[in-house]
Amino acid sequence: MEVLNRRWHRSDGKLMPLFRAFQDAGGALGATGIVHRFCHQRARVLSAYIGRGGNDIVGPWKRTTSPQTHGRLFQANVSHYKQQLADKLGIEPGQPGSIHFGGESRGFDEEFFLQLLSEHKEVKLSRGLRRVQWKRIRDRNEGLDMVVMILCLLDVYRSQIDRMFEPQLVQENGEKDWKPAAATETLALGVQNTPIQW
């Protein structure tokens, strides 16, 4: 709850509230219902999310309804977003389409990057059809899962982000400040283990 209500510090010293977030609803048996109910109670900001294999979803993502709470559930084609991430990681930092990661103090340490690169792509022929599979090469892949979730979050809310005015900013002295925002200034957060700022 603290993550959802927190005001996030920007590089210019202003504070920014959370716009939208996903909570991963996959995982431990019995936890899915808890996640769906938690998201349903905070539906203004938080939606349940689950990653699916590329054969389960046509397109990059789809919105469905949680069978437990009848709340929003977003399903991501993880193969699509893993390929998108691989393409973005191949772009020179600072160029359009590249991804900027913060420093070690923000959680982007060696372990994070080992997790980010914890799978590789394999292309197999099955009955004359090409099938793409991502094979895990390390035990831990939470960093990869989180970035895939954030890429899906950005896709889902891209039109709103591109046309929005910046959420209400609050300066350290409590004064309010409004101004149009560039999409790159908007905070998109995937809630899993630790927040990531883009």
Quick tags:
two-stranded antiparallel sheet, alpha/beta, 198 residues, 6 helices, disordered C terminus
Topology:
Elements: H1 2-5, E1 8-9, E2 15-16, E3 20-24, H2 31-41, E4 46-52, E5 61-65, E6 72-77, H3 78-89, H4 110-116, E7 119-126, E8 129-136, H5 142-156, H6 158-163, E9 169-170, E10 176-177, E11 188-191
Parallel strand pairs: 3-4, 3-11, 4-6
Antiparallel strand pairs: 1-2, 5-6, 7-8, 9-10
Helix pairs in contact: 3-5, 4-5
Brief rundown of the structure:
With about 200 residues, the protein is of the alpha/beta class. The chain has a domain at about 1-90 and about 150-190.
Describe this structure in words.
The protein has 198 residues and is of the alpha/beta class. It has a domain at 2-91 and 148-191. The chain contains six helices and eleven strands. The strands form four sheets. It has a five-stranded mixed beta sheet. Strands 1-2 form a two-stranded antiparallel sheet. A two-stranded antiparallel sheet has the order 7-8. Strand 1 (8-9) and strand 2 form a beta hairpin.
Number of helical elements: 6
Mean pLDDT: 81
Tally the beta strands.
11
Helix content: 25-40%
Q: How big a fraction of the residues is strand?
A: 25-35%
Order of strands, main sheet, comes to 5-6-4-3-11
Question: What is the helix/strand order?
Answer: HEEEHEEEHHEEHHEEE
